[in-house]
Amino acid sequence: MSNITQSMALTVPQSGSIEAYMQSAYSIPMLSAEREHELATRLYESNDLHAAQELIMSHLRFVIHIAKGYAGYGLPQADLVQEGNVGLMKAVKRFNPEVGVRLVSFAVHWIKAEIHEFVLRNWRIVKVATTKAQRKLFFNLRKNKKRLGWFSNEEISTVADTLGVTKKDVMEMESRMSNQDQAFELSSDDDDSSAGLGNFAPAQYLEDKQSDLATSVEDANWEDHANQRLSTALVALDERSQDIIRTRWLNEDKSTLQELADKYQISAERVRQLEKNALGKLKSTMA
């Protein structure tokens, strides 16, 4: 695991733009089942780190897709992706190509496990202090607090003057510190009706473990890939053919043959012929 982790350090977004990282990850081609099996076999039998690198790089987009499902926690997207990448590397190291499943189906559980652990470790600190200034106030407030319970107006003024902050900042941090840690799950006494009144727990943001996330991720990415191929193929058509295909097949409001015939001052039969030819060219280009 350590060798793979060291060799793949660049797959984890550092201080750069997370958007640029995502764009780079999505530009890496996905592997066919045959290529994936070949690489996994090389890694499993010979500890081939080059094979491990290709497996990991081609699956970075899956980590991003899964990490987006945890945006409700208020944690940095780059951190969620980084933790997910750790899970991906662990999965690649342990993947047995002879089991008969695709890597994404095996890796999704390791990716989610790492992200879950990160969320649990950081839930409380996110709610108490989210900026450097708030963390400084938090620790100073604990040191200056003379008694349990709420501050009086006089004490609030004293702390604010001492720390060089506003009364509002002191009162807000005092409120946060006085709250108990939020339970990760609702108690057995809580039901859906109480949750509807604003009683939420972090566990409610987690994805449904009963859903087949691996399949949905793979389907979504293949759909993106198909859409990209279609867009590329459309560019090869002339403008009139592009317009016919879009208005007849792709737009939400479809046009009839007669509407297009009136638009281009040709017969409806001619529009049908152009449509048929354009579909044939698209099929040939995408194949």
From TrEMBL:
Subcellular location, principal: cytoplasm
GO biological process: DNA-templated transcription initiation; response to heat
Record protein name field: RNA polymerase sigma factor RpoH
Gene that produces this protein: rpoH
Subunit structure: Interacts with the RNA polymerase core enzyme.
Annotated compartments: Cytoplasm
GO molecular function: DNA binding; sigma factor activity
Matching HAMAP family: Sigma70_RpoH
Known role: Sigma factors are initiation factors that promote the attachment of RNA polymerase to specific initiation sites and are then released. This sigma factor is involved in regulation of expression of heat shock genes.
Alphabetical list of NCBIfam families matching this protein: PRK06596.1 (NF005143), rpoH_proteo (TIGR02392), sigma70-ECF (TIGR02937)
GO CC annotation: cytoplasm
Sorted UniProt keywords: Cytoplasm, DNA-binding, Sigma factor, Stress response, Transcription, Transcription regulation
Source species taxonomy: Bacteria, Pseudomonadati, Pseudomonadota, Gammaproteobacteria, Alteromonadales
Domain RNA polymerase sigma-70: 79-92, 256-282
Lineage top rank: taxon: Bacteria
Segments of this protein annotated with the region Sigma-70 factor domain-2: 55-124
Chain positions of motif Interaction with polymerase core subunit RpoC: 79-82
The entry's DNA-binding region: 257-276
Family: Belongs to the sigma-70 factor family. RpoH subfamily.
Record SUPFAM superfamilies: Sigma2 domain of RNA polymerase sigma factors, Sigma3 and sigma4 domains of RNA polymerase sigma factors
